[in-house]
Every structure is written in structure tokens, then in C-alpha cells.
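Your task
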Amino acid sequence: MKAFSHRMFEKFRSRSTSRNLESPATLPKSPFLAVDWSETCITVLQVQLVKNEFQIGGRAFLPWPQEILPSSDASAAGNWLKGELQKNGIPVLPVVACAPRPRGMLKLLQIPDADSASMIKVIHHQIEFRAGAQPGEVVSDFLVLPKSEELSEGLRNVVAVLLPTKVLQQIRETLTAAGAELLSCGFGELALPTFSGDSAGCRIDVLCNHAKMEFVLSCDGDPVASLGQQAIYDASSVTSWLACIERIQLAVAQQLGRRSIDQILFWGPMAEEAIRFCRPHWKAVPPSLGKVTDVDARMLAYLNSLLRKRAVIDFAQPRRAPDPRKEQRRRLRQAGLVAGAICLPFVIGTLQERSRLDREVSKLRLLEKELQQFIERGQPILSQAAFVDRFRSERMDWGNELTNILPLLPESDRAYLNQLTLSQREGTPAAVSLSGLAHSAEDVSRLNRNLLDQVKNCELRSGGIEPNVMDREFNSRFSLELRFKSKEELDAAASGSSRGGAT
């Protein structure tokens, strides 16, 4: 019982830890706006989620006016955005936004493995320490990577992603001024690995836009490092792309070890152009083209991450330690469930035992009745089985007998058989009839002598030897019959010989 209660506690504890480390972000079932946010422009998509697929309605590309920028006047920028949406026939709906990746920061941390509340506190402390920022200057979210054999016992790898608080405030205040609510906000580049499912191994995803390229290193489907550079698509730039990948690998080598790249995928509107230049130079790991190659690749990647609940980074709803009061109430409910699960068997045990004994008595009575019926029904079967056994014992084992007879036949150049008949009828002894042609009468006589000497349980009946005028080489036709003695005859012969020997 003690082991049972411990298992119940661990089950509830693991569920709680897993739940607290998952992102609370979800996609709305009703239509919403997907916004790709930049400091110079935004792209707005009207999206509807239907049967786990995204249906894109309206789309608008809106450069920010130089005199109205969110960084200087979020309220004016929001009013301008609302008017532009109306001009493009796009309603004001809740928003899922992609923040500008150059304003963010990604760090790979190693922290002690513990319960979710303790891990979240340690992660936030490490983020503030590593970022070198004052409290409140950055907003962060994180991904706890699966346990790795390369790590020391009791440690976990954590990918921390940071965004300046003022950038998130600009996005939120601008959308609020436009009459929209910010639901989620993250980096679409870091969600590129989710396009290919839970793939194992290390992979490089490259987002190829017109002005910028982003290289993302993922391990087992989780992003662990990212680096961007200015986009120049020509043959001379391939060397800098390889150097960028090398820098990413070196940045995480201490935490993850030097792992080889298994796959390189290119995404975005300039993906085909980039592959055309790099394929002649990248022989070890040939690059491949991703499924999404349009200008909205990073926005679609972030939506796919939220849909699949995989590698979700959300600055609008970051992972936080649970409220102590809610946690206390949750633990009390769990303790009540565990106590009920432990006590319930004792409360109902007596009734169950009595009911079980009554059922056992009924089963035994029924079994006794069935066994008696089986005995009565089995008598004819036993009689039939005895008849079958007698029948089988009286049948001849032709395979064994032929094994003894066939080696006694002459060589094929001296004689051959043209007919061999096996017969055993009810009331008559078993017999083997042979007929064939021989080189001479002496071959037939020799065969008869061999059969008489070697086959003791048979009587030899020769059909005689006739000349064969049709064949000069085999000029003697013969036939004979071996009649097998019955068991009674063999027993009588054995008894007679034993009496003779005694005399």
C-alpha cells in the first residue's frame, strides 16, 4: 500500500510538472489576425483554423509611415493601423504576432533538474543574470529540452529566449489602440523545425527572405541556437553561410557536444535561389527545399508551432511559476484524491470479499454440473477413440516395410519394375505385388532368394517367369507377391520356435 501511494503521488507530481512547463498559449477557434511585425512594416493575415488547417483570408502589407512609428507614438500608430485594415477589408480581430528576431536573444542554459516551480524560478534567475539586464527590462520564455545522456546527472538543458520589454509594449499598445487584443507573440524563425514534425538528430533550418537570412540549429525538433545575417544571394556568399553554421555549432558545443548536421532545409521566398548557389559546394549534407517557400514562411511557422504545441515561445503568456495559493489548493485536492484512492479498498473490501465468495460457490456448483455432463458426453468419444486405436494398430506401416523390401531389388541394369501394388482389405492379410522385367531368369531367382532370406514376416508367392520376346535385353517377365503374416501368425511362429529351443 505504501508503494501504491508513492506511485500515485509521483503520477500527480509528474502531471503537474509537465503541465507547468508547457506553454499556456493556444490558438483561437474563431478567426484571428496573424501579424508579422517589423520596425519598418507589418504584414497582416486574416486566418481561420478549420480542421487543423489554416485558411488565409485577406492579406495586407503595410509599411509604417515615417511620421507615425510605434516606437515614437504607439497610439497614433494604432489608429493608423485600424484605418489601413478597414481600407483593405480586414476586420479587427485578436492578434497572434511574430516579433522582430533581431531584437531578441537566445541563450542555452544548464540548470538543476527539479520540480516545475523550482525550475522556473531558477531559469528566470539565470536569464536575468546572463542577460545583464535590470528586472523588468526584458520579457522571456523558455523551452526545457529532453534529458540528455551527454549531461551530468541531475542537469537539464534549457533554451531561454528574451525580448526587450519595450518592444513587447510597443506591439501591445499599438494593437490596443487599433482595437485588437494580443493573444501570443514569439519568433517565427525558431518555429521552423516544427514544420517537419518530431524529427530526430541535428538540423539546420535557413529562412531566406529578401533582406535577411536566419540560420536555426535544432536538436530532436527543438531549436537550440540561431544566427542571422544580411541576405546576399550569389556564389561568393556560400562561404559566409558555411561559416555561420560553424559559428552556431561552436556556440552550443559545450552544452550539447559537437554533433554532426543531419539535414539542411531552406525556407522562404528566396529558398530556391539559395539552394541553387550552395548545392555545388555542400556535398556532405545536400540542402533540401522546405515545403513553405512564400514570404509568410516565418508567420506560418509560428502558427504551426502554436497549433502543434511544439517548441512554443510566447512572450505574451510566458511560462511562470504557479501561484502559491492555487498550488496549495491543487495539492490539497491531489492529497484528497490520493487518500480516497488508498482508503476506498478498505471501505468496500468486506462487501467485495463476501460477494466474491458467493460467486465462487456458484461457479463451483456450475463447474461440478458441467463436469458431470462432460463425463456423460465423453463415453461415446472414448469408445470411438478405442476403435480408432485398434484400427491404427492393425494397419500396415507401408513406409517401414517398403524400406526393407526395395533395397533387395536387383540393380536397374539387371531388372526393373513396371508395377508395384500395395493392398490391405478387411479380413485379408496385407500384400505387396511386384511385376517387372529381368535380364535373365537367374536375376529373378536371386531376387526370390533375397526376399525369402531377408523378409521374415512375409510369405513369398511367385507368379512364375515368362519369356519376353519384345525385349532382347530384358527377356524374362516375372511377377511375385509378398503376403504379410498377421500378428497372430507371427506370435504362433515365435511361440513354436521358443518351445522347440527349450526341447
Q: What stands out?
A: Residues 37 and 99 are 5 Å apart (CA to CA).
